[in-house]
Write a structure and sequence with these properties.
Shape of chain A: globular
Number of helices of chain A: 15
Structural class of chain A: mainly alpha
CATH superfamily of the largest domain in chain A: MetI-like
Number of strands of chain B: 17
Oligomer: heterodimer
Radius of gyration of chain A: 24 Å
Largest interface: A-B, 31 and 46 residues
Number of strands of chain A: 0
Helix content of chain B: 25-40%
Strand content of chain B: 25-35%
CATH architecture of the largest domain in chain A: Orthogonal Bundle
Strand order of the largest sheet of chain B: 6-7-8-3-9-10
Number of domains of chain A: 2
């Protein structure tokens, strides 16, 4: 059997080797002439410097201004340690739950047709629209142990939600809910379902198809969603502040600690705690990056 | 594997895609589903694959009713029009997918993939990603992927539809030879009658959710069951209530009792053959096919008055 011989071969493009990564930043055709390109770059960098780099670097500087021991003391005090671990618990519980929910919800929104889909679609954006303080108050209406909706019944069973880490987790879940859904939905739309159908014809079960085809295809969307949700969970102040009762050493997360230290004129302590918060965020970004890279190598 | 489709109906909302369709596909045959877009041919293929569930009727394979058997257990190989390549997997990974699902040992998988890469002429491409292949190469990879699990039926949905004309022609020759070699029962969907006539042993012409006629290419061309089939598998002229193929009209230079008069509008030289466009005295136009040698010998040219005698014209009873 002879092959169809004269077919144009496509020259390998290194960019396609790492799917999902965008191409080189310096594409000569985009952005017009050299002068306007440099102008655009200066503007983008200047904007970032003013709004992002300067404030963040100032946090680092301020934290160490009074010397390392002072900053260290605030962070390693029992209150500081409690806030640190509590914050990690918030992220560690809320983000995985919202990731699983987010992927499932995105699949339902993109791949299924049912009545009330538009309603579900808008409901997911509620946490974006509602002020976090209002979220906190509404949780008190539901779970408040005295006049809440299910709160008194829960209290009888010995479950307390308001003024405990349980309520704080619920508040964090609420505010960080939309991120994974909103990142995954467009990716699912983009890839379509032909690859999944092909996998099914090749004998893959629904579960195998999801794990081997769908998940690898949407993992960049999931990654961004997780990073955004984690950042929100890490930094959430309003909703958590309302339901936590701000009990020092018990229900105080890092953002609450930063605010408290600042309000009680322990500025160095506030900066130190803020620094830890910033480092936590960086650690999450780095971890996600490492996981991505390992999966790409596999 | 022989396939019987019995009285299958499929609706999408208000739209009826298949309206009581029945079809027999003999074991080891190469069948084309031919029809205009929206005629239901792709839906029929997807119903046979198990990718769509019909609202009525049955699909039977080798005497076994598979209507309720899910797609992953039907043992069909399916090729999609846009290849449906697994973008994050290499060519090797794509072809090995079905074998990995079946948990075959690694060296067996590697051997089978190498064999298939040779079959579809993609040796040396194992480590490439789909994005680094041309359209024709991607379709061959998809074919190898479907063949890897040794399906008893191969289903191809407009397999060459997204390719340019040259690659299309090469690939359809190649599919023909592949079928002679592998002998798997094959059904492919196309809207290109030339492609269907060139490749298939049996052609099933579809229109408006129904099958108009099934038969060999020759049967369809020479004995079309109705006007639609006659018009779809070749060019036709309408003379009164009769239909006639352009090569079945004789051009006479002198009047003859029953021949109709017409004026040549244009003589188009298409290589071996020539198409003569004519204007009849009642204002209608007509196309006649003849050979280049004939047109030259009789010096046919625009403006000339000639006389036309149709041969083998057909009249069909009123359509449903």
């Amino acid at each position: 059997m002879t092959p169809p011989s004269r077919e144009p071969e496509i020259v390998p493009d290194p960019a396609v080797l790492s799917p999902g990564r965008s191409g080189p930043a310096d594409s000569p055709s985009v952005g017009g002439g050299r002068a306007s390109r440099i102008g655009l770059r200066t503007f983008a960098l200047g904007y970032l410097t003013l709004l992002l780099f300067v404030p963040v670097l100032l946090v680092f500087y301020k934290a160490f201004e009074d010397g390392l021991p002072n900053a260290w003391e605030t962070v390693t005090s029992p209150e500081g340690l409690n806030a640190f671990w509590l914050t990690i618990v918030m992220v560690g519980v809320a983000v995985p739950i919202n990731t699983v929910f987010g992927v499932a919800c995105a699949l339902v929104l993109v791949r299924q047709r049912f009545r009330g889909k538009a309603l579900l679609n808008s409901a997911i954006d509620l946490p974006f629209a509602i002020s976090p303080v209002v979220v906190g108050l509404s949780l008190i209406f539901v779970y408040g142990p005295r006049d809440g909706w299910v709160g008194p019944w829960l209290a009888e069973q010995g479950v307390r939600v308001i003024f405990t880490p349980v309520g704080m987790v619920i508040a964090t879940l609420f505010v960080s809910l939309p991120f994974v859904v909103r990142e995954v939905v467009p990716v699912l739309r983009e890839i379509g379902d032909e690859q999944e159908q092909a996998a099914r014809t090749l004998g893959a079960s629904a579960r195998q198809t999801f794990l081997r085809i769908t998940l690898p295809a949407i993992r960049w969307g999931v990654t961004y969603g997780v990073v955004l949700a984690a950042a929100r969970a890490l930094g959430e102040f309003g909703a958590v502040a309302v339901v936590s009762g701000k009990i020092s050493g018990v229900t105080e997360t890092m953002p609450l600690l930063v605010a408290k230290e600042y309000e009680t004129f322990n500025v160095a302590g506030a900066y130190a705690a803020a620094l830890v918060l910033a480092l936590l965020a960086l650690a999450i970004l780095l971890a996600m990056n490492l996981i991505e890279r390992r999966e790409e190598g596999a | 594997m022989s396939i019987s489709v019995v009285d299958v109906t499929k609706r999408f909302g208000d739209f009826t895609a298949l309206d009581g369709v029945s079809l027999e596909v003999p074991d080891g045959s190469l069948t084309a589903l031919l029809g205009p877009s929206g005629s239901g041919k792709s839906t029929l293929l997807r119903v046979i694959a198990g990718l769509e569930r019909p609202q009525g009727g049955r699909v039977v394979m080798n005497g076994r009713d598979v209507t309720d058997v899910p797609v992953q257990e039907r043992g069909v190989g399916f090729c999609f029009q846009h290849y449906a390549a697994f973008k994050h997997q290499t060519v090797h990974g794509n072809i090995a997918f079905g074998l990995k699902i079946r948990k075959r040992p690694k060296d067996e998988i590697d051997a089978r993939v190498a064999e298939l890469l040779a079959l579809v002429q993609l040796e040396g491409f194992a480590d490439r990603y789909p994005a680094q292949l041309s359209g024709g190469q991607r379709q061959r990879m998809a074919l190898a992927r479907a063949l890897a699990v040794e399906p008893e039926v191969l289903l191809l949905d407009e397999p060459f539809g997204a390719l340019d004309a040259t690659v299309r022609k090469q690939l359809r020759q190649w599919l023909r030879r592949l079928h002679d070699e592998v002998h798997v029962t094959t059904i492919f969907v196309t809207h290109d009658q030339e492609e269907a006539m060139d490749v298939a042993e049996q052609i099933v012409v579809m229109n408006h959710a129904r099958i108009e006629q099934a038969g060999t290419p020759r049967q369809l061309y020479d004995e079309p069951a109705n006007e639609f089939v006659m018009g779809f598998v070749g060019e036709v002229n309408r003379i009164g209530d009769q239909l006639v193929r352009p090569h079945d009209i004789e051009i006479l230079l002198e009047p003859d009792g029953r021949a109709q008069e017409g004026q040549i509008e244009r003589v188009a030289h298409l290589g071996f053959e020539v198409r003569v466009d004519l204007l009849l005295d009642d204002g209608r136009t007509l196309a006649v096919q003849t050979t280049s040698a004939d047109a030259e010998q009789r010096e046919l040219e625009a403006g000339q008055i000639v006389y036309l005698r149709p041969d083998r014209a057909r009249r069909f009873s009123a359509q449903r």
